[in-house]
């Protein structure tokens, strides 16, 4: 089994991913700012977990983190999962927080791909997992910067898969719909509780993590979860239309 680097593993989907890769027998390096939570996870999961504290809104921190993670063993699987979300109208969004979002959700993931790829290409094996969002396929009003970042990450990820065909390095793009985590709960609370909001299918972190691990093992191109959201891939114009028309208004309005 290999060495998996999971960013944003102190909570939610990243924590579930760390658990799932450890269960598969991998060594997992977990990264986030809340080091106490990472240490608690490592204490629970045992020797096969290494902890690195880093603020991934900073390129320099990301470089330092990657150098530390790969110093004792090469990174076989890079999981770009760390993310932040801002649900607010454009005028009420702090532009500095928006810049930080673009760094964490888009700029730094691409930088980490740039760091991880040479070693993977040299060894002719590896995988890069990019946790995008359904917002990349069907953007939801009220999240300008998040939609931009996740759309950018998903497009980059899909194109990278083509660029790396035949190299032995796989790329998996993950499109979660709403999943029960802190981010999911806060995002929902920012919208008015309309019927459409109540009918939205939700998923759980454990099932999503299991699907991501299977996709890495099988070399699949993408994970779309929960399943009803597959319609967004095959009927994208329709799903974009529904998303723009049926999205609940923001609470702030
Ligand atoms: N939950 C959903 O409904 C949903 C839907 C679609 C896509 N996603 C995507 O799935 C990924 C995980 O989201 P989640 O729902 O699990 O969110 P979450 O529970 O809020 O966890 C976010 C993780 O990202 C880390 N993170 C945030 N800012 C960071 C920074 N500056 N430096 C380092 N780490 C940072 C957090 O760690 P610290 O705070 O400790 O640094 C935490 O571990 C994100 O990319 C998100 O956009 C989530």
Textual characterization of the structure:
With 253 residues, the protein is of the alpha/beta class. Helix content is 51%, strand content 15%. It has one domain (3-246): 3-Layer(aba) Sandwich (Rossmann fold). The protein has a seven-stranded parallel sheet with strand order 3-2-1-4-5-6-7, with helices on both faces. Strand 2, helix 2 (35-45) and strand 3 form a beta-alpha-beta unit. The longest helix is centred in the middle third of the chain and has 29 residues, at 95-123. NADP nicotinamide-adenine-dinucleotide phosphate binds at residues 8-14, 32-34, 54-57, 81-85, 104, 131, 133, 176, 178-179, 181-184.
Task: Give the class from helix and strand content and strand pairing.
Answer: alpha/beta
Side by side, the strands of the main sheet go 3-2-1-4-5-6-7
For the record, the count of structural domains works out to 1
Low-confidence stretches: none
Calculate Rg over CA atoms.
Answer: 18 Å
Strand-residue proportion: 15-25%
The averaged pLDDT comes out at: 96
The CATH superfamily is known as NAD(P)-binding Rossmann-like Domain
Distance between the termini: 51 Å
What ligands does this structure carry?
A: NADP nicotinamide-adenine-dinucleotide phosphate
Report the principal-axis shape: globular
Which sheet architecture does the biggest sheet show? 7 strands, parallel
Which fold name is given in CATH as the topology?
Rossmann fold
CATH top level class name: Alpha Beta
Total of DSSP H or I helical runs spanning 4+ residues: 10
Portion in helices? 40-55%
> Could you say what the CATH architecture is?
3-Layer(aba) Sandwich
- SSE ordering: EHEHEHEHEHEHHHEHH
Number of separate strands? 7
